[in-house]
Amino acid sequence: MTTTAALERARASFARRSWGSAFEGFATADASTPLDLDDLERLALAAYLCGRDDESAHAWTRAHHEAIRRDDPQRAARNAVMIGSGLMFRGEAAPALGWFARAGRVLDDCGDCPERAWLLIWKAFAQMWGGDPETAQLAFVEGTVAGERIQDADLLTMARLGDGMCFILRGEGSAGIALLDEVMVGVTSGEVSPMYAGIAYCTVIAGCSELFDVRRAREWTAALERWCEAQPDLVPFRGNCMVHRCELKQLEGAWTDAMAAARQACDYLAGPVTWDTLGSAYYQLGELQRLRGELAEAEESYRRASESGRRPEPGLALLRLAQGRHDAAAGILRRALDETREPPARFRLLAAYVETMIALGDVASARAGADELNEIAVALDAPYLHATAASAAGAVLLAEGDAVPALRTLRSAGSAWRELDAPYETARVQVLIGLACQALGDAETSALELDGARRVFQQLQAEPDIERLNVLARRPRGPASGGLTPRELEVLRLVASGMTNRAIARELGLSEKTVARHVSNTLVKIGAPSRAGATAYAYENRLIQP
To answer: Does the keyword Transcription regulation apply (predicted)?
Structure first.
């Protein structure tokens, strides 16, 4: 094939967005005869979009120098911006800012031009991601004006995208989401070039996640998936797409699909260039492994998430809880909450904190966590938040021995999770409803709720939850538990069997201090003056068999 024919085929592949074929064609032609500037820029973009980052940076660098040689500073700056924007999206801010600085120096004598607006926008993204959305937003507004003036759809998209994210980060979610919806109109209608369309998809979905807007996240993730499927060779955004898909498939109960998406995301994001979202992919994989009882595998995934820059909480704490290491779980969550200030980030920790404190028998701390969850849910006002807060509140009421208000709250939580099409969360609430009905003496309804939850857990292969139901089924049923938590009931049975605190600690994998606290709480709740009195109470109320 002649060089001319190879170039024609490469350009045709580029036009139909077959990025891998375009890259191979341009690279083959370039090896024979150096490409001109237009084709060199096409080679750089095709290489970037099919995941050949080193070749992409090399081609754009050549294009940058060729434009300087031609005395075309604006085109040289545009190529420098392209290199910097790719690095910035990948999370490599320092080298990105270096390329932006070079672009600015090249433009010293150019006066006002579109490339200056692009530099303004990308520096604003660095400010926004660096924790200063207020300053960044001023630049994004200025960039929007420039984009409208010069009719640059890509520039306008990125400026509005940043403006909307700044609103969200400043706590003005409604204003932010309105701007992001407007951005996506242009993206989905094909007005935006592929590189910036991909950045917009990923950023908008991240914004939905920040607001816990599950409905929008589902819609835009589905759109991103379709967009990626139309470009089979596309790499940079496909891994991010799979991470979001994994999160949503997990919520929807499609755990097999979610597991496959998580593994694919890890493969895509791990190389040859490591993306900053790799940690999120490993974290999601760990979450699914934990929920299915693959605890050793989950441990490894959380470790890899941490090594890749994603904090492993609350998943790691819930893993420790599943391993019976309750004090370790509590320590992780207390430390994480102490260093976390932003309400959305605290919310992601608090549900696990409430569950852990109930398991420890520290109902007062669980109550404080549930109250804060509710405050955040009211402030941010998203259905997912309200469902989570109601689940936690119901669990705490049940732990406090208030079965009637617990049942009302848990019924509300169950309805909220059903509206969100979240079968696992719904089943978890069903278990609590079953326990509340049991405490109220309604054994038939309790059995119905627990059986319903079991069917869902079996479909999902949620082995830890199935085992917890098996433990509940083996427990003798008594008419009264004195408002004791499941952990306190467990400790009471062991006290009644004559075990010392040290022996109980070994049996349950707890510290002696924790066991002593459980024993003390139990004696207070049942009004027993001593361990002998607690033993008598347990037999009288049929909490253990003679």
So the answer is: yes
The pair of structure tokens assigned to 310 is 């994603």
Measuring CA to CA, which residue among 32, 30, 31, 354 is closest to residue 42? 30
Torsion of CA 65, 95, 83, 306, to 10 degrees: 150
Handedness of CA 192, 197, 203, 208 (dihedral sign): positive
- Check: CATH 1.10.10.10 for 483-546? yes
> Which of 205-214, 375-384, 416-425, 472-481 has the weakest average pLDDT?
472-481
Maximum pairwise Cα distance, the chain: 96
Give the orientation angle of helix 133-150 with respect to helix 153-169, to 10 degrees.
Answer: 160
Contacts 24+ apart (CB under 8 A), 108-114: 109/73, 110/73, 110/74, 110/77, 113/74, 114/74, 114/146, 114/150, 114/152, 114/155
**pTM (2 decimals)?**
0.76
Domain boundaries, the chain: 483-546
- Strand ranges inside 246-371, DSSP E: none
Q: What is the mean pLDDT of the chain?
A: 89
- Can you tell me the distance from the alpha carbon of 282 to that of 302, in angstroms, rounded to the nearest whole number? 7
* Residues 271-315 pLDDT 10s: 655 556 889 999 999 999 999 999 999 999 999 999 998 999 999
What would the mean pLDDT of 75-84 be, rounded to a whole number? Answer: 92
**Both tokens of residue 195?**
């590189």
**Amino acid letter at 11?**
R
Q: What is the pLDDT of residues 112-131, one digit of tens each?
A: 888 999 999 999 998 998 88
pLDDT, residue 478, reads 47
